[in-house]
Request: fold
Amino acid sequence: MSEAPFARRLLSVTAVEELGAYRVLRVADPDEGGRGSIPKPGQFAMLSAAEHWGAEEGQRPFLARALSIARHSEGESHFLLEDVGPGTKRLCELRAGDGVWALGPLGRGFTPPSEGRRAVLVGGGVGIAPLAILQDELAGSVTVLLGFRDRAHAQGAALLDGARVATDDGSTGHHGLVTELLAADLERDPEAVVYACGPSGMLEGVRALCAERDVPAQLALEAGMACGFGACFGCVVEKRGGGYLRVCVDGPVVDAGELERVSEPVGGAEFGGPA
Reply:
């Protein structure tokens, strides 16, 4: 993997696809002359629209949004979007041919499982995004467990292959939490490495389950980010034994053992789907 250039690049939107309550933003992102770099599963990019980023006259521009790279294939990078605020709304409004400023890939990604251990991918909501590129790169079969609030959001499961789904309202799949699916799966076969991304409550459930069963887990933390490269300290989380981790540079993927518990970052909003 080449190092990402420490400068934003102007990319072009190739397509925006509907996926239930989500949008998949596809942008041309070739690695031409080393200007770009191939992302590692779990990394992210800071994105902003090239035009009308801040909307009307007199308004402050929006901060770039930190978005997990959901897929990188044939010179394109894909991002999973949900319209949850003015910034993500503007990104959802983009169409083919529009420009996007991108900084990245950034952060620490996932590490493949050691020999003899299977991979279990656990995602919640828009946090399923980095699990798609991870599934693309893992050899052999993997277990995919995804949780959503309802049927419209559960259509996002199409981003991955062979997913088992849980919904809060029971409209699709298992009626309940995705961590309930994980508990049953680890009961059958604990020789696994768990890879998870989603809201902090879900990640804490994953962390606790894996700690009880001595199952290694890698968690892609969600946090609001202002810069993406560790300068602003807006995305810090407490680590086991004291001190803090900056999600953007010490993560977003961290070993579950580095955390006493998963809580809301000091910076607030979600990493995978910020406003």
